[in-house]
Specification:
By secondary structure, the chain is mostly helical. It has one domain (18-103). The chain is 60% helix and 3% strand. The protein has three helices and two strands. The protein has a two-stranded parallel sheet. Helix 1 runs antiparallel to helix 2. The radius of gyration is 27 Å and the shape is rod-shaped. The model has no long low-confidence stretch (mean pLDDT 89).
Length: 116
Amino acid sequence: MTVSTPVPTRHPMDPDPAPSSKARAIFALGLVGFLTGALVGGVIPATVALLMARQAAREAYAAKGYLTGSAWIRRGRRLAWAGLVLAIATLVVAVIAGLLHLAAAPAGTDFSPGTN
């Protein structure tokens, strides 16, 4: 004999889960930051995505599970950090290339060997 236990249902006064309006924007900004990170232009959208992700995470915590979209926020945050890492790597490579270019240039005035 099988006794079925009733499945707990939501309280009728509970709100319906709603998607976060910022989640898709965070993902889009993170993606733009990642794609343009190597061009150093991705710093701005990546920074905005990280700031919005902090706000959206606070709102989702305050909503106690009734605000969905945490996966989009997480993906957007990861893409934004990857874009910032790409931008920093590009700047480091540019600085090293500039220093190597300066090191190859002759220093000071180059006089001919017979000049006093």
